[in-house]
Amino acid sequence: MPGPDNTILVTGARAPVALHLARLLHGAGRRVILADSPARPIAAASTACARYRRLPPPRFEPAAYAEAVEALVRAESIDLVIPTCEEVFYLALAWRERAIPARLFAPGIELLAQVHDKHAFVRLAESLGLAVPETTLLQSAADLDAVRSHSRDLVFKPVWSRFASQVLLRPLPGALDAISPSPAAPWVAQRFVPGNEISAYAVARDGALKAFSLYRSLYRAGKGASIYFEPVEDPAARHLVERIVAATGWSGQISFDLMREADGRVLPLECNPRAVSGLHFFRDPLRFADALLGTGAEVRPPDVATPQTVRLAMWIYGLPAALRSGGLRGFRHAMREADDLLDWPDDPAPKKAQWRALAEIAGLAWRERISLQAASTRDMEWNGPLQT
């Protein structure tokens, strides 16, 4: 299909959101190249994938990663690069340091780092006049001791983290002995906010919202990543997202964890400058491609209202959680109600490929003695400018 953004590179091919994005863009007539560091990610099996390129791991070999991405862009005459996971940080650094002849659908590294930083993001939202939960930066044992006495009113989490990893929810004071905040690995202590947690996914261009969905997670992989989610609506949440997108001039995908209090007020908890599960509520390729690439002023709402899930993940994580909580009946009902987000017309291969992808991740988890969830992002995580 001739025209702008004809050939698009989607990175983070291990993620279901990358597969979904590739299917949408392919359905809109674009040629989609996929790239990532695993050998056999699920998206590589899709009919939407014109080619899959395996890349060096960005976290451990950032220079080689940048060089490989630039070579791929030039070899395939790629017009646009769309990150889906935390490789966005390494790509932003590559775009700052190299003359790569393609557009990156993401802001610069400074803005990405600001919103990913759980303390800096709250300060940003506060500066825009938004209500925020009280959030304290912890960079030393003295900082930790200063909040220890009221730890039962707080949530502790690393400034640079994902999937609620390492979160301490209203811990006893003694439990804080397990963490050691430092300037290189800071934490935050955030006021515990009772209410209903909701998540937001947005596409924006030049500070204008172009696609938007809200959802709540009914089942998760451990504490964090959602594996079963249903759409919700909330005008206050949309207003909050629009304010942040406009103030930052955001171009790219951006996501938020929000808390809706009993009185309807919505507070921002943290921001993820990447795709999240809310993308799966968009199923119309032409309309989504227009939101992502077009020039219209309309904000694209979700196309489907049915709950979405990955059934394999539900069997691995959801069923054990249901058995522990006595919620087996609810689990069975949820499985009946939801669509498997991997299902797509005339594209069955990724559903089968998820077993090979899972085996690759499980092998890494076994070798490194880490969880499946940690293994799934280990080589692309970005833990701040001083990460080790």
From TrEMBL:
Which Gene3D superfamilies does this one have? 3.40.50.20, ATP-grasp fold, B domain
Residues annotated as domain ATP-grasp: 122-297
The lineage's top-level taxon is: Bacteria
The answer, when asked if Nucleotide-binding is one of the entry's keywords, is: yes
Please give the name of this protein: ATP-grasp domain-containing protein
| InterPro entries for the chain | ATP-grasp, NAD(P)-bd_dom_sf
What are the protein's UniProt keywords? ATP-binding, Nucleotide-binding
In the record, what terms sit under GO molecular function? ATP binding; metal ion binding
- Positions the record marks as coiled coil are none
